[in-house]
Amino acid sequence: MKFDNKKKIKQTALDLFGQKGYEETSLSDIAAVVGIKKPSIYNHFSSKEEIFTDVIEDLIKSEISSYHKLHEIEHPGSAIEQVRRVFDSFCHRLLTTKEARLWKRVSFYPPDPFKEFISKKFYELEVEYSRLLRSIHASGKRNGYFMHIDVDQFTASFLCLIDGVFLEHHYYTEEIFKERIESIWKVYELGLTNNKGV
């Protein structure tokens, strides 16, 4: 039961932090949704700050795990198909997970006490993205792709691509967003596969 309550507290906090923000979410809010009294939270966490950092840590682990799974696919297809798979995975998570809402909020409006912490976590995630992209670039090059695209250029371009997608999702409806990601990918793929890229 204790473990279940701890998990429920974090899941509820994830949802409320994403909806209302860190500052506007109280321990009383979290306790009310979980269905426990506020003092019971202290059986699991020392403070709202600890809940927040735990939630962000879990969010990072979830993101990293999803990209590790992409890396472990037995028959990954061509290099371009692999890049598309990473792109689709990122877009899918934006559209379907509660974590995405919290990511957007802490990206655009990081709580002052956690700015450095969040920046550090973003960097950790970027390192994992870069590791996966470098692996795709290396295997692609062995098979005739990316012959005139430096690995750092490739990695930077993709990270900028998903940063742009992240921002688009913040401003547009799901329908418009889906149309835009197809347009974005079409142009990006042309850049990877024209005679300068291949």
From TrEMBL:
<feature type="domain" description="HTH tetR-type">
    <location>
        <begin position="3"/>
        <end position="63"/>
    </location>
</feature>
<keyword id="KW-0678">Repressor</keyword>
<dbReference type="InterPro" id="IPR036271">
    <property type="entry name" value="Tet_transcr_reg_TetR-rel_C_sf"/>
</dbReference>
<dbReference type="Pfam" id="PF00440">
    <property type="entry name" value="TetR_N"/>
</dbReference>
<protein>
    <recommendedName>
        <fullName>HTH tetR-type domain-containing protein</fullName>
    </recommendedName>
</protein>
<feature type="DNA-binding region" description="H-T-H motif">
    <location>
        <begin position="26"/>
        <end position="45"/>
    </location>
</feature>
<dbReference type="GO" id="GO:0003677">
    <property type="term" value="F:DNA binding"/>
</dbReference>
<keyword id="KW-0238">DNA-binding</keyword>
<dbReference type="InterPro" id="IPR050624">
    <property type="entry name" value="HTH-type_Tx_Regulator"/>
</dbReference>
<dbReference type="InterPro" id="IPR009057">
    <property type="entry name" value="Homeodomain-like_sf"/>
</dbReference>
<dbReference type="InterPro" id="IPR001647">
    <property type="entry name" value="HTH_TetR"/>
</dbReference>
